[in-house]
Automatic annotation (TrEMBL):
Domain of life according to the entry: Eukaryota
Coiled coil: none
Family that this chain belongs to: Belongs to the TEL2 family.
Domain Telomere length regulation protein conserved, residue spans: 415-525
GO molecular function: Hsp90 protein binding; telomeric DNA binding
Descriptive protein name: KLLA0D15158p
Cellular component per GO, a single term: cytosol
Length: 666
């Protein structure tokens, strides 16, 4: 044979021929699609039975050619649900697992125009989507961690492409990207930290800011405590860019990190941040006013006397005093004067015992850092299994469960939803038990799952009646059946979550009623996403075996695969997620992801409601703990989604706020 002729494999695919082709192709770093396709068609399908040395040679060839990975993904996709598909994906997994220099080779031996394509394969979710049925996002990120470890070790000259790739990798899942790449790699040793610093020095200002705000800040806020504050301060001082201002810094939950952050930025940046926060302070928002006053005092404490004096002569900087002193709230006025006195270096004459107490820590730049940087006292909450969160709320129930003798006395079947509504009205009017009707709702709505038009028509009234009833007779499993009834409606008509949230936010409800609504939203999200919870009753019926012709259009076609959208098709997005710490024990029993389309409807109203403020008086913390748990479950189900990054950022903000309110979130 002369030259590289992989087409020989189309005619003869024995051990010797495979060896000769792979050996000759290994002498060249990059290959065309035409050269690689015969190997994919003929050799990869028999990968499990190849001798060890041929397996290694095949993986090595793929590890040197990003086109190889792309073609394997596309070829396997064409096979559909063919059994060979698992062989192709198993081969890809082995490549990522054993060829730790893949990413380094791709970056070193590819032209600049190839880099977006490489990013879309490894970090734009194409590769992970292909493997998602067999490995979790955390396992995938750990493979990527091995790749970046090799890049850190072998790269001699960084450019902005490296940081772009690294940030894209982190954006696959922000919370777990922080755990795996920042905590688990970049801050484990002086060598890794210096490699990150060199990479950051070559990035654009946009890349640097994005990395700092979305990836480094969450980690540092988690680990900073009084004992390591000088270490964190030294880390910040080594960053090859000015620490950017964040108008949301007052929402961060760790006061020690806020102090370190403010001392780490320049005097000019502190003055800039002070001015940026004043319009928020002037709003006198009940839920953020104390946090804003605290951060403003922190800023002023970090500034020199001369800088405060200069800032106090800025007309804009003192406008807030006039506006806020008109408030009828005593605390608002006290905070105003406390900040004003601090701003004027105590030149403002105002006698009061009011004070804003802040932690006192000494910050010095260390000559040598101690690695690894580990989690400190101010831990951010860790999530538990989403299924376990729900197990605590429910007893397992079945359609046969009943302690209600009236079930036998009134056994007539309800065949139509309009009749079900009438029955609810009768029972509510007569002050009777609704338990039988809740069970009927589950059976009837589940039976009509292929008739969403009918369910949708009656859903608003059904949701209102079910959500607002209470367990007047202290009946066993009442709340479980109530939640199941709500879930049955939402699974058939997910868009009706909007109506359920309207009930939650606009009606006078008891604590238990509110908690059941939240639980129902979370359970619905899980079922739509494909999880099978034993405490959700899902009866199956043979009728109807065929849909009526005029009803077919009512059922929207759902995506066939649980796949993250390619990052090349969406702007600035990323997805997550499951960490080992957040994995569910449930198995995905359906292949379709019917939740993606409705993820934003389920998540954003709850998230924004939290940020707008919730107060349930004596039951506030109990409700908020449940609220956080259910919101975390919904976010879990949202992966993959093109807006997942925005949802995760919002969730991080909510968790920080919850910590500040001393609401338990784990």
């Amino acid at each position: 044979m002369s030259g590289i002729d992989s087409t020989l494999l189309n005619e003869k695919c024995d051990k010797d021929t495979i060896y000769q082709v792979l050996e000759r192709m290994s002498s060249k770093k990059q290959h065309s699609s035409n050269e690689i396709l015969p190997i994919i068609k003929n050799v990869v399908p028999i990968y499990p039975s190849l001798p060890r040395e041929l397996k290694m040679a095949l993986r090595r060839l793929c590890g040197n050619n990003y086109i190889f990975i792309s073609l394997v993904i596309e070829y396997a996709k064409e096979l559909g649900k063919n059994r060979e598909t698992s062989i192709f994906y198993g081969f890809l997994t082995d490549v990522l697992k054993y060829e730790s220099d893949c990413l380094f080779n791709y970056l070193e031996h590819s032209s600049r125009r190839d880099l977006p394509f490489i990013k879309s394969i490894l970090f734009g979710s194409r590769c992970y989507n292909a493997l998602s049925s067999s490995i979790s996002i955390v396992e995938y990120l750990k493979f990527m961690k091995m790749q970046w470890e090799f890049v850190f070790k072998e790269t001699k000259q960084y450019d902005k492409t490296h940081l772009e790739m690294f940030v894209s990798c982190l954006q696959l899942n922000i919370p777990y990207g922080v755990d795996i790449f920042i905590e688990g790699l970049a801050t484990t040793s002086e060598f890794s930290w210096n490699a990150l610093i060199m990479m950051l020095s070559k990035g654009t200002s946009v890349q640097q800011r994005r990395f700092f705000m979305y990836h480094l800040v969450p980690f540092l806020e988690k680990v900073t405590n009084p004992d390591n504050s000088s270490t964190i301060f030294t880390l910040l001082s080594q960053l090859p860019f000015d620490i950017p201002t964040s108008i949301d810094c007052f929402k961060w939950g760790n006061p020690y990190f806020k102090i370190v952050y403010l001392h780490g930025m320049s005097e000019a940046k502190r003055a800039q941040l002070f001015r940026e926060l004043l319009p928020c302070f002037e709003l006198m928002d009940l839920y953020t006013d104390d946090s804003l006053a605290e951060i403003l005092v922190m800023i002023l404490d970090a500034m020199s006397k001369d800088s405060r004096d200069e800032l106090s002569h800025d007309a804009i900087s003192l406008n807030f005093v006039t506006k806020r002193l008109h408030s009828e709230d005593h605390l608002v006025r006290e905070r105003t004067m406390f900040v004003a006195k601090k701003l004027t270096n105590d030149q403002l004459q105002y006698e009061s015992d009011f004070t804003i107490d802040l932690p006192r820590i000494e910050l010095i730049k260390l000559s040598k850092l101690e690695f690894p940087i580990k989690e400190g006292l101010q831990n951010l909450p860790k999530g538990n299994s989403t299924k376990n969160e729900l197990v605590q709320q429910f007893n397992t129930i079945t359609l046969q469960d009943s302690d209600d003798e009236s079930d036998e006395e009134d056994s007539r079947d309800i065949l139509f939803l309009k009749d079900l509504l009438l029955e609810f009205e009768k029972v509510i009017k007569n002050d009777g038990s609704e338990l039988r009707l809740l069970k009927e709702t589950v059976k009837l709505v589940r039976q009509k799952k292929n008739f969403p038009t009918e369910v949708s028509f009656y859903s608003k009234e059904l949701l209102k009646k079910i959500a607002t009833i209470s367990n007047k007779f202290d009946e066993k499993s009442f709340e479980e059946w109530k939640a199941n009834a709500l879930v049955s409606i939402l699974v058939v008509c997910p868009d009706k979550i909007v109506d359920l949230y309207a009930i939650l936010f606009n009606n006078e409800l008891s604590l238990q009623q509110r908690m059941v609504i939240l639980t129902s939203a979370a359970l619905s999200a899980r079922e739509l996403r494909g999880f099978d919870d034993e405490f959700v009753v899902k009866p199956k019926y043979d009728f109807p075996t065929n849909r009526l012709p005029w009803d077919e259009s009512a059922t929207e076609q759902q995506p066939e695969n649980n796949k993250i959208q390619d990052i090349t098709e969406i702007t600035g997005s990323k997805v997550t997620w499951r960490s080992k710490r957040l994995e569910t024990d449930s198995k995905i029993t359906q292949q379709q992801n019917n939740f993606r389309k409705y993820a934003t409807l389920f998540f954003y109203p709850l998230a924004h409601a939290w940020l707008n403020g919730i107060n349930l008086g004596a039951f506030d913390k109990v409700f908020k703990r449940h609220y956080i748990s259910m919101l975390k479950i919904i976010l879990t189900c949202a992966s993959p989604h093109y807006e997942l990054e925005e949802m995760q950022i919002l969730m991080q903000e909510i968790l920080s706020d919850a910590v500040k309110q001393q609401v338990q979130t784990s």
